[in-house]
Amino acid sequence: MGYIKSLNKWANAHTYYPLDMLRVALGIFLFYKGVYFMSNLNLLIDLIEPVKSVAGDVLLVHYIAPAHFVGGFLIVFGLLTRWAVIAQLPILIGAVVINFVGEMHTGNLLLSLIVLVVCVFFLFYGSGKHSVDKYLKMQQ
Questions:
Q1: Is the separation of the CB atoms in 105 and 9 below 8 Å?
Q2: Cα–chain-centroid distance for residue 87?
Q3: Structure confidence by residue, pLDDT tens digits, 12-43
Q4: How far apart are CA 105 and CA 123, in angstroms?
C-alpha cells in the first residue's frame, strides 16, 4: 500500500495537462468503442470469431461492450481510473491476440497496441491531479 501512495505522490507532483488530455482522449475512445460495439453486435461477434472456442460468445459480448462503455466514462472523469483500466486489459490483450490467431489487420493491431500501452501507463500513473479521484481525496 505504501508503494501505491508513493506512486500517487509522484504522479500528483509531476502531472501535466497533456497527460490529463491523454486520459480524457483514452476514455472518449473507449466509450466510443463501447457504443460502437453495442450498436454493431454482429461486427463484435465476427471480431471474436477466432477465439470463439476458448470463451463463449455471450460472455465475451456481454463483457466487452459494457466494459468499454462504463470504463471509458470512468476514465474520462478520472474516477476509479485504475480499476477501469484493469477491466480493459483483458479485452486489449485479447484484441492483440486475435490479430495473431485470426486474420492479421495491421491497423487494428497497431491501434490495440497503442491503447494497451496507454492503459498500462495509466494503471501505474493513476488518474492524475485533475480528476474526480483527486477531488474526492482532497474533500476528506
A1: no
A2: 7
A3: 676 678 888 999 999 999 999 888 888 887 77
A4: 27
